Amino acid sequence: MDNYKLTTWEVASTLAIVTLTPVLLSYPQYNAKTYGTAYMLHSIYMAIVMFIIFWIGLKLYKPFVGKDILDVAEMLGGKKLKIISGILFLSYLILIVIFTMQEFGEDIEKVMFTHSTNSEINIMFAIAMAVLAYFGMKGAFKFGSYIFPIIVIGFILVFLSLFSRIDVLNLTPILGTGADKVFLSGVKEVGIYSSLFALLFVPPMVKNIKKASYCSIASTSFFIIFSAFLLTTIIPYPSLTQKSFAIFELTRYIGFGRFFQRLEAVFTFLWIMTCFIFIGVALIFIIYILKKSFNLKYANRLIPCIALILYTCSDIIPNYYIATKVREFLYIVISPCILLILPIILISLCRLKISGRKERSCQE
To answer: CA 140, 118, 14: angle at the middle one, nearest 5?
Structure first.
């Protein structure tokens, strides 16, 4: 990484793109089934919850500025705890990549590459993932910062071209399937913010982690809330519950006059780019965690091997249904544990350990 420090813009824009991948897949369908017409309300609620959680987390993190979560684990329990924590983070990240590749590959095969097999599409993803990983953290985040404005413009074009189809009455009843589901059971579903997982590892490489964290939450929330608004106001409930690739369905409605029809191909290219960035950034962090947890000197040499393993694992998943169900489980059940509970436990216990040492030294 040399002495290069990632800027707030690079971190916030790239993590926003990474967040967009689950939004493109079955996440809207799951949310529509769970919350009904309250899908957008739940998205706004979760954005507020994430701001509060990160505000608390950054307060706890103050004594560890410049250290990532693996450094904190090592301070707390030595190399053994660092390795155990690294394995947990690696397992989560690897599973997310495998099932995302499978699901996205199936969706793209249905709508664009109808004469290709899912294996061929996943090979393309594996190659793109490996290429981006060779550019490293600096190159991947810079690339993401260049793509981000294009995707924002794409969303604005979707909004402008489909403005006449928007019906805000589709948001009623506001509480959808019930206030208890939206505000109580819904609070645990932080999986859509899984891109913020990267913030656990970038502190040594970021100029201002506090600013980068808040800007990342803001940029990711923008995509989540804006896409929820478009989907729920254009595709009414319960029709949205039948759409496994809902954002693509929106782009099929786009047309500018007589000569610009079927523009979904352009937007599909943008969605493919977001998936490339998602899996590429994930592979970079897999390499980073491996290198730091096991003190590997030449971890980059593992990039082709890991890319091949990820491709093979995604290819042996028997069907689309299993891929979506396992990914839902990862986002709903595992994400809160890995993204929030484990880091907060490590940071809190490490703070107690440090304060205990200070008290003992004062007594002496």
So the answer is: 20
Tokens of 11: 């971190």
Burial 174-188 (b: 16+ CB within 10 A, else e): ebbbeeebbeeebee
HSE of 175, CA atoms in CB hemisphere, 13 A:
6
Least confident of 73-82, 184-193, 258-267: 258-267
Q: What are 214's two structure tokens?
A: 């808040």
Ranges of H-type helices in the chain: 8-24, 27-35, 39-61, 69-111, 118-134, 136-161, 179-183, 209-234, 246-251, 264-294, 303-315, 320-329, 335, 342-363
Structure tokens that stand for 316 in this block: 């042996």
Q: How many CA atoms lie within 13 A of 114 on its CB side?
A: 3
Instruction: Report how far apart, in Å, the C-alpha atoms of 303 and of each of 22, 286, 317 are.
Output: 24, 9, 22
Output the DSSP codes for 13-54: HHHHHHHHHHHHTTHHHHHHHHHGGGHHHHHHHHHHHHHHHH
Task: Work out the number of other CB atoms within 10 angstroms of the CB of residue 124.
Answer: 16
Listed residue (70, 38, 75) closest to 342, CA to CA: 70
Rounded to an integer, the average pLDDT of 236-263 is 70
Q: Give which of 5, 22, 4 is closest to 196, Cα–Cα.
A: 22
With beta carbons less than 8 A apart as the criterion, state whether 85 and 346 touch: yes
Instruction: Using pLDDT thresholds of 50, 70 and 90, give the confidence band for residue 364.
Output: low
In this predicted structure, the answer to whether residue 1 has a pLDDT above a threshold of 70 is no
Chain position carrying tokens 């490590």: 346
**β-sheet bridge partners, residue 260:** 256
d(Cα 54, Cα 115) in Å, to the nearest integer? 45
Q: What does pTM read for this prediction? A: 0.90
pLDDT at 174 > cutoff 70: yes
Higher pLDDT, 287 or 360: 287
Q: How far, rounded to the nearest angstrom, does the alpha carbon of residue 102 sit from its chain's CA centroid? A: 16
Residue linked to tokens 């030294």: 361
- What is the C-alpha separation between 119 and 70, in angstroms, rounded? 35
